[in-house]
Design brief:
With 92 residues, the chain is mainly alpha-helical. The protein has one domain (7-91). The chain has helices at 7-26, 30-91. The model has no long low-confidence stretch (mean pLDDT 82).
Length: 92
Protein backbone atom coordinates (compact mmCIF):
# COMPACT_ATOMS: atom_id res chain seq x y z
CA UNK A 1 0.00 0.00 0.00
CA UNK A 2 2.87 2.37 0.65
CA UNK A 3 4.22 2.13 -2.88
CA UNK A 4 1.59 4.38 -4.48
CA UNK A 5 0.39 6.42 -1.51
CA UNK A 6 1.36 9.78 -3.10
CA UNK A 7 -0.52 9.28 -6.37
CA UNK A 8 -3.78 11.03 -5.32
CA UNK A 9 -1.91 14.07 -3.99
CA UNK A 10 0.25 14.38 -7.09
CA UNK A 11 -2.69 14.09 -9.46
CA UNK A 12 -4.71 16.59 -7.41
CA UNK A 13 -1.93 19.17 -7.28
CA UNK A 14 -1.12 18.83 -10.97
CA UNK A 15 -4.79 19.19 -11.95
CA UNK A 16 -5.21 22.16 -9.61
CA UNK A 17 -2.17 23.88 -11.11
CA UNK A 18 -3.39 23.35 -14.69
CA UNK A 19 -6.92 24.54 -13.88
CA UNK A 20 -5.61 27.58 -11.99
CA UNK A 21 -3.32 28.63 -14.84
CA UNK A 22 -6.14 28.27 -17.35
CA UNK A 23 -8.58 30.25 -15.21
CA UNK A 24 -6.04 33.03 -14.60
CA UNK A 25 -5.46 33.33 -18.35
CA UNK A 26 -9.22 33.45 -18.97
CA UNK A 27 -9.71 35.99 -16.14
CA UNK A 28 -12.40 34.22 -14.13
CA UNK A 29 -13.93 36.03 -11.17
CA UNK A 30 -12.64 35.03 -7.73
CA UNK A 31 -15.79 33.20 -6.62
CA UNK A 32 -16.05 31.20 -9.85
CA UNK A 33 -12.30 30.57 -9.73
CA UNK A 34 -12.48 29.10 -6.23
CA UNK A 35 -15.54 26.93 -6.85
CA UNK A 36 -14.20 25.50 -10.09
CA UNK A 37 -10.78 24.90 -8.53
CA UNK A 38 -12.22 23.14 -5.47
CA UNK A 39 -14.56 20.96 -7.54
CA UNK A 40 -11.88 19.99 -10.05
CA UNK A 41 -9.36 19.19 -7.30
CA UNK A 42 -11.92 17.07 -5.44
CA UNK A 43 -12.78 15.19 -8.65
CA UNK A 44 -9.16 14.51 -9.47
CA UNK A 45 -8.49 13.43 -5.88
CA UNK A 46 -11.19 10.75 -6.27
CA UNK A 47 -9.62 9.71 -9.60
CA UNK A 48 -6.23 9.48 -7.86
CA UNK A 49 -7.61 7.25 -5.11
CA UNK A 50 -9.16 4.92 -7.68
CA UNK A 51 -5.89 4.83 -9.63
CA UNK A 52 -3.93 4.09 -6.44
CA UNK A 53 -6.25 1.18 -5.59
CA UNK A 54 -5.90 -0.26 -9.10
CA UNK A 55 -2.11 0.07 -9.09
CA UNK A 56 -1.82 -1.50 -5.64
CA UNK A 57 -3.90 -4.49 -6.73
CA UNK A 58 -1.95 -4.98 -9.95
CA UNK A 59 1.48 -4.74 -8.37
CA UNK A 60 0.47 -6.70 -5.26
CA UNK A 61 -0.46 -9.67 -7.46
CA UNK A 62 2.82 -9.40 -9.38
CA UNK A 63 4.80 -9.17 -6.13
CA UNK A 64 3.08 -12.29 -4.79
CA UNK A 65 3.84 -14.20 -7.99
CA UNK A 66 7.51 -13.19 -8.01
CA UNK A 67 7.86 -14.02 -4.31
CA UNK A 68 6.31 -17.46 -4.85
CA UNK A 69 8.54 -18.12 -7.86
CA UNK A 70 11.63 -17.06 -5.94
CA UNK A 71 10.65 -19.24 -2.98
CA UNK A 72 10.08 -22.24 -5.26
CA UNK A 73 13.33 -21.64 -7.09
CA UNK A 74 15.34 -21.30 -3.91
CA UNK A 75 13.85 -24.43 -2.38
CA UNK A 76 14.46 -26.37 -5.56
CA UNK A 77 18.08 -25.26 -5.67
CA UNK A 78 18.62 -26.20 -2.02
CA UNK A 79 17.12 -29.63 -2.54
CA UNK A 80 19.23 -30.22 -5.63
CA UNK A 81 22.42 -29.16 -3.89
CA UNK A 82 21.60 -31.42 -0.92
CA UNK A 83 21.03 -34.37 -3.26
CA UNK A 84 24.33 -33.71 -5.02
CA UNK A 85 26.15 -33.57 -1.68
CA UNK A 86 24.51 -36.84 -0.55
CA UNK A 87 25.46 -38.55 -3.82
CA UNK A 88 29.04 -37.28 -3.52
CA UNK A 89 29.29 -38.58 0.06
CA UNK A 90 27.85 -41.98 -0.85
CA UNK A 91 30.31 -42.37 -3.75
CA UNK A 92 33.28 -41.76 -1.45
Amino acid sequence: MRKFRNIPALITLLAGFIVAVFMIMEKFTLINFLWILICSMFGFYIVGIILRIILNKVFKDEDKNTDENEDNGENGENEDSEEVEKNAESEQ
